[in-house]
């Protein structure tokens, strides 16, 4: 019964802010906020799935930066895994093209201002220590994206008010 299907969620970071997306469907999820992404297809690498989903849903050109450790159960057979991601130079700004009807760039202080899907709360919390390494300006170079040592930065939990 090991038939899990991975849903990749993108912690898209830019200028120290995280992109949150409000779902427009299905009805039981509509109005709640999530990390944009979607299901990994058969034979597809999760990082490739993330880049594809962010292009389809938001019209952006991105790269996956680093895996956020952990795995969060969704409705069976789905599990959520999260990667930080950054906009590549020249990418358009994200727009809610499909699955979403509103987007917000959140600072760490604003992270709990939106009504995240329940199952996303621990995943979003887990991204916080990665904001320093995952933050791209959209014009940066690869060297700024993969400095694992910064992932333990002391301010990684700033703004966290949720239990
Ligand atoms: N993308 C995404 N999906 C999430 C999150 N949290 C969560 O419960 N889900 C659920 C919603 C959906 O039931 C499922 C992902 O479906 P999806 O509709 O985003 O994926 P998809 O684009 O590949 O879907 P499809 O229309 O091609 O079937 O996981 C999240 O943070 N990001």
TrEMBL record:
Needed cofactors: Mg(2+)
EC number(s) given by UniProt: 3.6.1.55
PROSITE patterns found in the cross-reference section: NUDIX, NUDIX_BOX
Keywords, alphabetical: DNA damage, DNA repair, DNA replication, Hydrolase, Magnesium, Metal-binding, Mutator protein
One Pfam family it belongs to: NUDIX
Catalysis: reaction(s): 8-oxo-dGTP + H2O = 8-oxo-dGMP + diphosphate + H(+)
Nudix hydrolase domain sequence ranges: 3-133
Superkingdom assignment: Bacteria
PANTHER family membership: 8-OXO-DGTP DIPHOSPHATASE (PTHR47707), NUDIX HYDROLASE FAMILY PROTEIN (PTHR47707:SF1)
Name of this protein: 8-oxo-dGTP diphosphatase
Organism: Streptomyces kaempferi
